[in-house]
């Protein structure tokens, strides 16, 4: 568990870049311009209707009641009721459309982030905790929901209401309007300060939530529970999680209380303004200043109260937008991640792949500053032949194999498939051509059939059974109470290691790739299970170009050629017999195997921990 580890790529927020960020947020709503225009019309209509009510009240107090005009009084009363009805109807329609638009924008963001991550190279995921990725999609985008679904509409609605109300107040009495708006600039300044403060706290809070999510994902997975229980660290893990949660409590309190007293002062002052208006009107009457009728004063106070709600809401919306900018910043960081492995504008598509693989002066390093993992690799694997890649831990074996399906891209030289640089092939061709069976078998929490059909969604039941028989796993599946409908459990933990490997092989057989990468596919198995899995591998490898990465040399003795890697370079090459006669590194490895026995593969290389997500060492 690494609760403090963060992604390696996190650009610092730039305050000067905020206008560009706001423009980018607005572009998210561009596909929904039509619906937003309807919302704008509803907002405008609602504002005009609500502003009309104080004028109806003025006429009621100054004309209809004093002069006993019953008909006019009834008409004005009906107008007030109609105004309330229209305002409510417009509000419901406005909420429906704006919420729908907001949720569509949320969907677009989630899909965009997920799609971006699907295009990232394997190197990104070996550096980034799974919980961090999940937190960006769930917590950060989820935290923006209120802003995206209602803030935009609230902003337009409140701005329209404030403008319309101020115009109406000026029409009633411009002097009282000036008195009412004297403190408005101060309020705006206070709200901006509060917004900036909350934005900073929100950034810290989301990072802490991501750290907690990563801790939960790692420690509460099946592998994490097994490790914690067997190492007696359950209490320690609980204490560590409690510390993470305690830090989040502090940030949540600070976030909610940031600027709360200053906003409370604004609320008190706004609520006291009607008393100021009455006081101002009374002084004007007493000292011979300009007088206003009772209806005008009451209507003005009514407008002022109508101004109070949207004005305070507008200030709060400004604070919320500032806070949400921190969340958008974190999402845009993922959307702006550089994609290392991309498809050409006009990629090559191969309808039929023979399977010849060539490594031509291949070099690879994980980053510009790191030491080379591979250097000067020249190997040709004819179509339908087998190549075994052996060598000590850290020699670059797995990395070399992963260059063929473009899990990584070479940093020098090239890898070709049927004479075409794999970087020039379209992704679909490469996915159909190259299959990978690794030491760590990943199974979804779904049925056996669904896991197998992940390789071929339209596979028939007969095809599933045929693939399972070839992988020596059909009889075991058929003996289960639910057969192929049996749910495999989290990461397949209801099945043994050998059974999971055979399921993975059946899945690959179903896909039927002409090129096969076997990465330590049997190194974590006992000898008896390995023999069963090896039979399945032999069936899978028949008539395919096969690259086998192995520590157990007993599994590669029949390969057409064997390459021995040492420190990222080809140290030896030849058949099993040729290399034994040469009596070099390979012969030394064979003697070591004979001395250590069949368990040496396990001793040489531990299975990759998918929770820790470390870069492959072999």
UniProtKB/TrEMBL annotation:
Subcellular location, record wording: Cell inner membrane
GO cellular component, one term: plasma membrane
Residue stretches spanning the membrane: 36-57, 72-97, 152-172, 178-195, 264-287
Annotated region described as Disordered, given as residue ranges: 596-618
Domain ABC transporter intervals: 357-592
PANTHER family: ABC TRANSPORTER B FAMILY MEMBER 28, ATP-DEPENDENT PERMEASE MDL1, MITOCHONDRIAL
Membrane topology (UniProt): Multi-pass membrane protein
Main localization (coarse): membrane
Pfam family membership, one: ABC_membrane
Record keywords, A-Z: ATP-binding, Cell inner membrane, Cell membrane, Membrane, Nucleotide-binding, Transmembrane, Transmembrane helix, Transport
InterPro entries for this protein: AAA+_ATPase, ABC1_TM_dom, ABC1_TM_sf, ABC_transporter-like_ATP-bd, ABC_transporter-like_CS, P-loop_NTPase, Type_1_exporter
Stated family: Belongs to the ABC transporter superfamily. Siderophore-Fe(3+) uptake transporter (SIUT) (TC 3.A.1.21) family.
GO MF: ABC-type oligopeptide transporter activity; ATP binding; ATP hydrolysis activity
ABC transmembrane type-1 domain location: 37-323
Name this protein carries in UniProt: Multidrug ABC transporter ATP-binding protein
SUPFAM superfamilies found in the cross-reference section: ABC transporter transmembrane region (SSF90123), P-loop containing nucleoside triphosphate hydrolases (SSF52540)
Ion transport listed as a keyword: no
GO biological process: oligopeptide export from mitochondrion
């Amino acid at each position: 568990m690494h609760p403090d580890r963060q992604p390696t790529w996190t650009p610092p927020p730039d305050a000067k870049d905020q206008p560009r960020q706001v423009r980018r947020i607005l572009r998210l709503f561009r596909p929904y311009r039509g619906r937003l225009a309807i919302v704008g019309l509803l907002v405008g209509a609602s504002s005009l209707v609500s502003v009309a009510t104080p004028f109806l009240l003025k006429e009621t107090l100054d004309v209809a009641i004093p002069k006993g005009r019953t008909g006019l009084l009834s008409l004005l009363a009906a107008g007030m009721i109609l105004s309330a009805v229209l305002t409510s109807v417009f509000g419901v329609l406005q909420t429906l459309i704006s919420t729908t638009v907001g949720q569509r924008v949320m969907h677009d963001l989630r899909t965009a982030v997920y799609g971006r991550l699907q295009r990232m190279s394997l190197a990104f995921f070996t550096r980034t905790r799974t919980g961090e990725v999940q937190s960006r999609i769930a917590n950060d985008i989820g935290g923006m929901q209120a802003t995206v679904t209602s803030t935009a509409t609230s902003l337009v609605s409140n701005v329209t209401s404030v403008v319309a109300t101020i115009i109406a107040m000026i029409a009633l009495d411009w002097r009282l309007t000036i008195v009412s708006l004297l403190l408005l600039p101060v309020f705006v300044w206070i709200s901006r300060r509060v917004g900036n403060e909350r934005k900073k706290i929100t950034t810290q809070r989301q990072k802490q939530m991501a750290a907690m999510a990563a801790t939960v994902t790692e420690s509460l997975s099946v592998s994490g529970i097994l490790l914690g229980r067997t190492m007696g660290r359950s209490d320690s893990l609980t204490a560590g999680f409690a510390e993470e949660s305690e830090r989040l409590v502090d940030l949540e309190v600070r976030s909610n209380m940031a600027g709360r007293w200053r906003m409370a002062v604004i609320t008190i002052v706004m609520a006291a303004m009607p008393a100021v208006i009455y006081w101002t009107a009374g002084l004007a009457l007493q000292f011979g200043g300009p007088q206003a009728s009772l209806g005008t004063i009451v209507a003005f106070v009514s407008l002022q109260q109508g101004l109070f709600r949207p004005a305070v809401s507008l200030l709060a919306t400004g604070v919320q937008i500032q806070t949400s900018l921190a969340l958008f910043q974190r999402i845009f960081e993922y959307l702006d991640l550089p994609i290392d492995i991309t498809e050409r504008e006009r990629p090559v598509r191969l309808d039929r792949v023979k399977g010849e693989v060539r490594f031509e002066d291949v070099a690879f390093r994980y980053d510009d500053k790191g030491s080379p993992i591979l250097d000067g690799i020249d190997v040709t694997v004819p179509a339908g032949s087998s190549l075994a890649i052996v060598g000590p831990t850290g020699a670059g074996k797995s990395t070399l194999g992963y260059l063929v399906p473009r899990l990584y891209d070479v940093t020098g030289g090239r890898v070709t498939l049927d004479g075409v640089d794999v970087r020039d092939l379209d992704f679909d061709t490469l996915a159909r051509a190259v299959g990978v069976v690794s030491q760590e078998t990943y199974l979804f929490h779904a049925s056996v059939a669904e896991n197998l059909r992940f390789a071929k969604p339209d596979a028939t039941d007969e095809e599933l059974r045929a693939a399972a028989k070839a992988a020596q796993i059909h009889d075991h599946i058929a003996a289960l109470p639910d057969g192929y409908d049996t749910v495999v459990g989290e990461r397949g933990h209801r099945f043994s290691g050998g059974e999971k490997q055979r399921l993975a092989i059946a899945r690959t057989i179903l896909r039927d790739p002409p090129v096969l990468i076997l990465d330590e596919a049997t190194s974590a198995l006992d000898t008896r299970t390995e023999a069963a899995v090896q039979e399945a591998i032999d069936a899978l490898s028949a008539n395919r170009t096969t690259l086998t990465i192995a520590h157990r040399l007993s599994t590669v003795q029949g390969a057409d050629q064997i390459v021995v890697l040492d420190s990222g370079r080809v140290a030896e090459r030849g058949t099993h017999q040729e290399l034994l006669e040469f009596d070099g590194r390979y012969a030394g490895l064979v003697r070591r195997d004979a001395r250590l026995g069949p368990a040496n593969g396990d001793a040489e290389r531990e299975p990759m921990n998918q929770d820790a997500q470390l870069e492959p060492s072999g």
